[in-house]
Amino acid sequence: MKKGFIVNNGTVQTSLDGVKLRYPKVRTSDGHMLEWDKEAIVKQLLRETKLSKEFYGSSPIDEDTARYGLQYER
Known about the structure:
The protein has 4 helices and 4 strands, in the order ββββαααα. It has helices at about 40-50, 50-55, 65, 70-74; strands at about 10-15, 20, 25, 35. A two-stranded antiparallel ribbon has the order 1-2. It has a two-stranded antiparallel ribbon with strand order 3-4. The longest helix has 11 residues, at about 40-50. Mean pLDDT is about 80; it is low at about 1-10.
């Protein structure tokens, strides 16, 4: 890819040598491959961990915890 390559939705990462690259696609829980979307990942974490209370008796993840990793991506 060219140096400085920008994706429409801002889903780029910078390699160690400064080259901008697209994030890889991610697999959803139902098996679909989608473009990297931070907000969709946060929503999915919130939705799926609600089941932890039912199955394991532990609290689901809260939104602050689900967003924790986002601050380190920038």
